[in-house]
Design brief:
The complex is a heterotrimer of chains A (525), B (296) and C (342).
Chain A: E1 32-33, E2 47-52, H1 68-77, E3 82-84, E4 91-93, E5 96-103, E6 106-111, H2 125-135, E7 150-157, E8 160-165, H3 172-176, H4 179-182, H5 187-191, H6 197-200, E9 208-214, E10 218-223, E11 237-242, H7 246-254, E12 260-263, H8 266-272, E13 277-278, E14 285-291, H9 301-310, H10 313-320, H11 352-362, E15 367-374, H12 378-392, E16 396-403, H13 405-414, E17 421-425, H14 432-440, H15 452-463, H16 468-485, E18 488-489, E19 493-494, E20 498-501, E21 505-506, E22 509-510, E23 523-524
Parallel strand pairs in A: 2-11, 2-12, 15-16, 15-17
Antiparallel strand pairs in A: 1-22, 3-4, 5-6, 6-8, 7-8, 9-10, 10-11, 12-20, 13-20, 14-17, 14-18, 14-19, 21-23
Helix pairs in contact in A: 9-11, 10-12, 14-15, 15-16
Chain B: H1 5-8, H2 21-52, H3 54-57, H4 88-123, H5 126-140, H6 144-155, H7 159-185, H8 189-196, H9 201-237, H10 249-256, H11 264-292
Chain C: H1 11-18, H2 28-56, H3 61-66, H4 72-81, H5 88-100, H6 114-149, H7 154-168, H8 171-185, H9 201-235, H10 238-245, H11 250-288, H12 293-303, H13 306-334, H14 336-341
Helix pairs in contact in C: 2-13, 6-7, 6-9, 6-11, 6-13, 7-9, 8-9, 8-11, 9-11, 10-11, 11-12, 11-13, 12-13
Classes of the chains: A alpha+beta (525), B mainly alpha (296), C mainly alpha (342).
Chain lengths: 525, 296, 342
């Protein structure tokens, strides 16, 4: 229905891990609304059945949620001080009705009155202080802990919370607007429950509360009657059933066993479009091939250039990504700093003849590359196999090894890549400064590039305090520079997931994090 | 598949003197038995030929993009194309190499190792017997699929691991059959006399036991191959078989299951190839079993 | 061909091995005691195997729990907190000690007691197993009996062909094909998306039909074969000849004497098959998204959830051991041949 989202409106800001600033792409605009016509006016009632791939492996504790499965529940049960609009970047009030910055490192929040937790106890300023301090408590093991540099969090009065930072951090408000990176919990409840309890029980302020947790099969949630944003939520009961296999999930949707699912494969999304509403997806998943340019055959720049020219990106987009991909540099077009553009990228036109010449001129002889990709992801594997096939035509042999995700990331983080190329996909909970640091930060173990010029650019990008325009320019420069020196190969960027729902669900909107954040606005038509 | 009813499927429990009766019976019914075996052999020859010869004749490589993705079967791409536009027929054939060779290698290995255990238990002393059969019982006290799953997860799934794992899970059947036969045989006159006259155990095994047990081992070989090919495909269906880009039937089924409603020929093609191979081995085992009047 | 592809060893090889004819049948109590002791010994070894196996898995739960973007310090702290740094023998003894007190530990991921996880999933697997067994008996026993009656005729050939096909078919392919057929023939049939019986009984029964068929039809193949073989054998017995000679029709004689006498080996096979269901149900639970024990085992294995994997392995092993034991025990009781000839 709608064309591909104008990307300027999207914000990839879900977790700005580095202290880099993401200026809010401050344009208004709404998220994708594909339904909304049928179903009449919003009204209460009904049961919605959701088919989900998995249950949260990390449990229901919001600040432990990293994966889709866990974030989806954090988004229903918990809330932050602020929230994000459907565009994924506009800040909106949530548990705080207003906020102001009183100094470069001090923020003051005014709490909403009359908010209660699911157990009926009222939200107090002390709960907020407890919640924020809990995120940075090392004993909690929250992945979001390192993102905050709190000097202090205090509650000067019953309805005020003051956050003092060590350094200025413009990503703070966005972090506080996400249920997973800053979910507010009840101090009394958390203190009276064990860490294990928190994995299968909840006590948030969100629109839905947990009714039943049945491991491996069902999570039943019901409308929270005491929700502050009346008359939302509308749907009486939302049941999340586990259907691990995508094909089975599709089958379940088609037979009416479930009302909404998420699919990864574009082919499935397009087939389902005939009978269901399918979100357009957000181009936030850049298919990264990180290159080890420090040692091995890829240390030779000519070899890298040859490989870049030897990759037929058009074929990778039409076949590998099943037509869902768009041209992309290291920063996906879905990122606000790219404003929907791939950027002006040299050396990305398919030219096998020149690639062969470059390869011959490089003096590298027979080039054999080891490509490590994540196991159990057929969509990632498809493109890798095509790349292998394409590169074999210019005389480069690629050996694909599939590695479990945890092992892949741990190889990456430890610096022992055990491969010449590592495939990862840019994720929503990463901001450009963060994910570029993962690959290109000076002195980091993960960095496999030795280029002082790039490090300087990186440092500028991370520490800059200039205007929006300047910031975009800095990132655009890095995007082009990396393509020019071929420090990383990016064939395309594609949506990581598509939401599909039946006519039964009305008024549902998706947003860039794809966590069903706005389920509370939807009703059963 | 048809033979004189009374004798054909008679349980192995009924006593008989093994060295002559069954052979005579086999000769008597040889012509009819060979029908099933012949069909089975024919199927297998066909499958092996498709696997090893067909890809050389067809104008596509298994990894090249040969057409539009998800093309239906047609004159150019006999079985259509897969999600990457690769020729599905050629991929199916090449995948056959994986499945067929693992099944064969795994069962032969199981035959050698399992029979060795069986002979040792049958001829060796009480303690050796108890020890070995205890181990066999342990192996059997566990679903073989799960054992395979665990082993492959631990040792990563290469061709070698798969062959080793699959032969280990098939080994107990050989061991039990061989041991049971040895226990029967060693009480028989010709073996007893050899034992009394002080012939070494190894000689007894080779000269007297092996020739009598060998046909049983062959039957079990075919049966095992049929099981192993199904096990291998089950493992690779669960994503734990030979890793891509090497194609295998189980994985192809799992992958094309995603496109079941729109391109059903993908699942049916791979499933059909798997079925034909297991039928091939099964028919051979069946035919031999009938001829030897042995374990079903 | 052996029982089912992924199933248990056939009745014959087990019976031949366990109740080997070289071993004289000891008095019943001693026999039972020995069998139980042996089962316990196997279980003990299995506990070591299970424990060792999961620790051989590459990676550990701390890595999975900490997530991809965690730093090494977080992982190390988690590993420490989970007790993964203790010596293996100590970990094993701790686990075994708790096990003997009925404490199977908790899942690393959702913090729920392992026993509870198993209890929640067990009904689903049992239901599937039961339904599949019913399906297999419903077609296997009559088909085998009739085939024996009509030996060599068309029905016999058809039944034997079907049985052969059942043994050769990979269950997961069969399951997928059933889904395909159902989605074309009855698009609104809830072929997948299993709902537990306690939730919506009607929906549950509907969603159990296809998995039960997928599991039960191939399973019936073995039954069909054994039924046929046993019946043919029974026909050769004196009492049936007598019955026939006294004027009873073949059908009457079959129903009166044959079925009862053939039931011994068939019950044995059915029992062993129930244990064999475990392996196949892993696949079928995968195809039909049924939250059962098989799925739990595979998932916990993949996620390196040590306590859960260990408990599942022990449980599945226990099922096998108990079923083998039961078959061993009832076999001499109900199969006249075993009692008489030994």
């Amino acid at each position: 229905m709608t064309s591909r989202m104008p990307v300027s409106r999207l914000a990839l800001t879900v977790a700005a891990i580095a202290a880099t600033s993401i200026t809010l792409a401050g344009c208004g605009g709404s998220g994708q609304t594909q339904s909304g016509t049928g179903g009449g006016a919003p009204h209460r009632g009904g049961v919605l059945t959701v088919g989900d791939e998995s249950q949260p492996l990390s449990g229901l504790d919001p600040i432990l949620a990293q994966a889709f499965d866990a974030k989806r529940f954090a988004a229903q049960f918990y809330e932050g001080l602020l929230s994000l609009g459907p565009d994924g970047s506009t800040l909106k009030p949530a548990l705080a009705t207003s906020w102001k910055q009183t100094s470069p490192t001090t923020y003051e929040f005014t709490l909403r009155q009359g908010v209660t937790f699911h157990d009926g106890s009222p939200l107090k300023a002390s709960d907020v202080v407890f919640s924020l301090k809990r995120i940075v408590d090392p004993a909690v093991h929250s992945p979001y802990g390192p993102l905050y540099k709190f000097k202090d969090v205090t509650a000067p009065s019953d309805d005020k919370v003051v956050v003092k930072l060590v350094d200025p951090q413009s990503s703070l408000l966005h972090l506080l607007a996400q249920p997973w990176s800053a979910g507010i919990v009840s101090e009394r409840w958390v203190r009276s429950h064990s860490a294990n309890d928190l994995k299968t029980q909840e006590d948030g302020t969100g629109p839905y509360k947990l009714a039943e947790f049945r491991e491996g099969s069902l999570i039943k949630t019901v409308r929270f009657d005491g929700y502050w944003d009346r008359p939302k939520p509308y749907i009486n009961e939302v049941d999340y059933r586990v259907i691990p296999d995508e094909a089975t999930r599709v089958q379940a949707l088609q037979s009416g066993t479930v009302d909404t699912i998420q699919v990864v494969l574009p082919k499935n999304a397009s087939v389902l479009k005939r009978r269901f509403t399918v979100s357009d997806g957000y181009d936030v998943g850049a298919y990264w091939l990180g290159l080890n340019t420090v040692s091995g055959p890829l240390a030779n720049e000519k070899v890298r250039q040859a490989i870049s020219l030897g990759i037929d990106r058009k074929q990778l987009i039409t076949v590998g990504s099943q037509g869902a991909g768009v041209a992309s540099g290291i920063i996906p077009p879905g990122d606000p700093v790219m404003a929907g553009q791939a950027g002006d990228l040299p050396g990305t036109q398919y030219d096998p003849n020149q690639a062969k010449q470059l390869l011959a001129a490089s003096g590298a002889g027979a080039v054999k590359l080891k490509l490590a990709i994540r196991s159990n992801r057929p969509d990632k594997l498809a493109t890798a196999q095509l790349i292998k096939e394409q590169l074999s035509k210019i005389g480069v042999e690629v050996d694909i090894t599939q590695v479990p995700f945890e092992q892949l990331t741990s190889n990456l983080l430890s610096g022992n890549w055990n491969a010449d190329m590592i495939q990862l996909t840019s994720a929503l909970n990463a901001a450009p400064g963060q994910y570029l640091s993962l690959w290109f930060e000076k002195g980091s173990k993960t960095t496999k590039v030795n280029d002082p010029e790039l490090w300087k650019q990186m440092s500028n990008a991370v520490h800059q305090t200039g205007s929006d325009q300047e910031r975009r320019q800095t990132y655009a420069d890095i995007n082009r520079y990396v393509a020019q020196r071929v420090y990383m190969l990016v064939p395309y960027a594609a949506p990581p997931v598509y939401d599909v729902w039946s006519k039964k669900l009305a008024g549902f909107k998706t947003e860039p994090s794809s966590t069903r954040m706005f389920l509370k606005d939807a009703w059963i038509g | 598949m048809s033979e004189s009813p009374v004798l054909s499927d008679a349980p192995a429990d009924t006593n008989e003197s093994p060295e002559n009766a069954s052979a005579a019976r086999a000769r008597r019914r040889g012509a009819r038995i060979s029908a099933g075996v012949a069909v089975g052999l024919g199927l297998l020859v066909l499958m092996f030929a498709l696997a090893y010869v067909a890809p050389l004749i067809r104008p596509f490589s298994p990894s090249e993009v040969a057409g539009k993705p998800f093309a239906a079967p047609n004159g150019t791409n006999w079985l259509g194309t897969d999600d990457l536009g690769r020729d599905y027929f050629v991929r199916l054939c090449v995948a056959g190499r994986t499945s067929l060779s693992i099944a064969l290698a795994g069962s032969v290995l199981a035959l050698v190792a399992g029979s060795a255990v069986g002979f040792a238990a049958g001829v060796g002393g009480r303690w050796l017997d108890a020890l070995l059969m205890g181990g066999v019982d342990l192996l059997l006290s566990f679903p073989s699929l799960l054992l395979g799953l665990a082993a492959v997860t631990v040792f990563s799934s290469s061709m070698t691991t798969l062959i080793a794992v699959l032969s280990i899970v098939s080994l107990p059947h050989f061991a039990r059959i061989v041991r049971a036969r040895c226990l029967e045989l060693r009480e028989l006159e010709f073996v007893l006399s050899a034992r009394i006259s002080g012939v070494r155990s190894s000689t007894i095994v080779v000269k007297h036991l092996l020739p009598n047990v060998f046909p049983l081992m062959m039957v079990q070989l075919a049966n095992s191959a049929a099981i192993v090919i199904l096990l291998e495909s089950a493992l690779s269906y669960l994503g734990l078989g030979v890793q891509p880009p090497t194609p295998s039937w189980g994985r192809m089924i799992a992958e094309s299951q995603n496109y079941l409603t729109d391109s059903p020929w993908l699942v049916l093609g791979a499933g059909g190839a798997l079925l034909l191979s297991s039928i091939g081995w099964g028919l051979i085992g069946e035919g031999f079993a009938t001829s030897r009047r042995s374990v079903v | 061909m052996h029982a089912t592809g992924l199933g248990p060893p056939s009745h014959r090889s087990v019976a031949a091995g366990l109740v080997g004819r070289a071993i004289a049948l000891p008095p019943l109590t001693a026999f039972i005691a020995r069998r139980v002791l042996r089962g316990l010994a196997v279980l003990f070894v299995l506990s070591i195997v299970a424990f060792g196996l999961v620790r051989l898995l590459p990676g550990n739960p701390a890595d999975v729990l900490a997530g991809p973007y965690s730093d090494a310090a977080t992982r190390a702290r988690l590993a420490q907190d989970l007790g993964l740094n203790r010596p293996l023998t100590e970990q094993y003894l701790l686990w075994l000690g708790r096990l003997l007190h009925g404490d199977f530990g908790v899942s690393v991921y959702n913090g729920l007691p392992v026993l509870q996880l198993i209890k929640q999933r067990l009904p689903n697997t049992l239901e599937l197993a039961l339904a599949a067994t019913v399906v297999s008996i419903l077609w296997g026993v009559p088909a085998g009996t009739i085939a024996a009656l009509r030996q060599g005729r068309t029905f016999d050939r058809l039944a034997r062909g079907a049985a052969f096909l059942g043994l050769a078919t990979p269950v997961f392919v069969f399951g997928v094909c059933l889904v395909l057929v159902a989605s074309i023939a009855v698009p609104s049939w809830p072929s997948v998306g299993f709902v537990p019986f306690s939730d919506q009984p009607a929906r549950n029964l509907q969603s159990t039909v296809l998995p039960a068929l997928a599991l039960g039809l191939p399973l019936g193949a073995t039954l069909c074969r054994f039924m046929r073989t046993s019946m043919i054998e029974v026909y050769e017995q004196d009492y049936l000849r007598t019955a026939l000679a006294t004027g009873a029709t073949r059908l009457q004689a079959t129903l009166r004497h044959g079925l009862r006498n053939a039931s011994g080996p068939v019950v044995t096979v059915a029992g062993l098959q129930l244990a064999g269901l475990v392996g196949n149900s892993i696949l079928i639970e995968n195809v039909f998204a049924i939250p059962g024990i098989g799925q739990l085992t595979v998932n916990s294995l993949m996620q390196k959830d040590y306590s859960v994997t260990q408990a599942c392995i022990l449980l599945l092993g226990l099922v096998y051991i108990v079923m083998n034991l039961v078959v061993d025990l009832i076999h001499p009781l109900i199969d006249p041949r075993v009692g008489e000839s030994r």
